[in-house]
Write a structure and sequence with these properties.
The complex is a heterodimer of chains A (149) and B (154).
Chain A: H1 3-30, H2 39-58, H3 68-77, H4 86-89, H5 103-115, H6 119-148
Helix pairs in contact in A: 1-2, 5-6
Chain B: H1 5-12, H2 17-44, H3 49-74, E1 95-98, E2 104-107, H4 125-130, H5 137-153
Antiparallel strand pairs in B: 1-2
Helix pairs in contact in B: 2-3, 2-5
Classes of the chains: A mainly alpha (149), B mainly alpha (154).
């Protein structure tokens, strides 16, 4: 709720309270419910209703687009910090388990058990897979070069 | 059986349930607040029976109209279709149909720059004007304010 809408709502509520108090006084003074209210009280009440309505509508929370397309587009334009799939999009690659010889996992598990630092084996696996990826890329380039010539 | 237009709409342009809930909550809280306010003023004006209910409906029309105007203005002309699923539960404006070859073709009418670039849902204005508990929770709030103020003032 912005400051302006709060101000407008407050002003309308003050008008409404004033109209209500005036109606109360009028009833006490004439002690007759059949007597019609003066016009100024009626007008004040109606104006107060319109003003408070405007204030509440302006102060209503912002709506969110319901179509997945528009909603996701808005998140992307805002920088993607509210993306609910952020955890899936930014993660480590898969381990290349084919490169693990018999001894390495045993070594890693032993390390993990001994030191209690599980990060080490993850890092170890990542370096291995990185090295392997580099090797694969080099091999691909080697395959490509003669084909281009 | 061929899928209906509504099913195809939801398949190609899915809804975000969280956003739908949020928008409905905003709308119903606005209607509850304004209905109570209308009840207070109906009590001050000492309206009775049918006049009071006529006042409620006029006031609700005013609030819905203001809300709709604000909606159109804030969404650069897209209107209610971008924020409410409508009476057909998410059917889009424009055409979406599956051909005999099984290919679904969609055509969003004037969804370009003119209307904010949103996907619009058919009949969404009904949600703004009749939704948000206008005939249920908000009405009971109105009667509460009406009788309360009427009892205190007279």
């Amino acid at each position: 709720m912005s400051f302006l809408s709060k101000l407008v709502t407050l002003f309308g509520l003050i008008l409404l309270t004033h109209a209500g108090y005036s109606a109360h006084e009028h009833t006490i003074l004439f002690n007759n419910t059949r007597l019609a209210l003066p016009h100024d009280i009626i007008v004040e009440t109606l104006v107060a209703v319109v003003i408070v309505s405007i204030g509440l509508v302006l102060g209503a929370e912002k709506l969110k687009p319901i179509s997945w397309r528009d909603w996701a587009g808005q998140i992307e334009r805002d920088g993607g910090a509210r993306n609910p799939y952020l955890g899936l999009e930014e993660r480590y690659g898969f381990w290349d388990i084919r490169n693990w010889t018999y001894r390495e996992p045993v070594l890693a598990v032993a390390l993990w058990l001994c030191s209690g630092v599980s990060c080490i084996c993850v890092e170890h696996a990542l370096t291995i897979s990185q090295a392997k990826r580099q090797e694969f890329a080099d091999w691909m380039r080697g395959q490509d070069l003669p084909a281009k010539q | 059986m061929a899928p209906t237009k509504q099913e195809l709409s939801l398949l190609i342009n899915p809804l975000v349930p969280e956003a739908v809930q949020h928008n409905n909550r905003v709308l119903s809280s606005l209607h509850s607040l304004t209905a109570f306010l209308l009840g207070l003023s109906a009590g001050i004006l000492a309206l009775q029976s049918a006049t009071g209910f006529a006042f409620y409906f006029l006031g609700t029309v005013l609030v819905s109209g203001l809300f709709h105007l604000a909606l159109i203005q804030r969404s650069s002309g897209a209107g209610a279709g971008a924020f409410f699923p409508g009476s057909n539960a998410g059917e889009i404006e424009g055409s979406v149909a599956m051909g005999k070859d099984g290919v679904v073709r969609m055509d969003l009418v004037d969804s370009s720059k003119k209307r904010g670039g949103f996907v619009l849902r058919k009949g969404a204005w009904r949600d703004v004007w009749f939704g948000g508990g206008v005939l249920s929770e908000a009405l009971s709030g109105f009667v509460l304010g009406w009788t309360g103020v009427g009892g205190v003032l007279r």
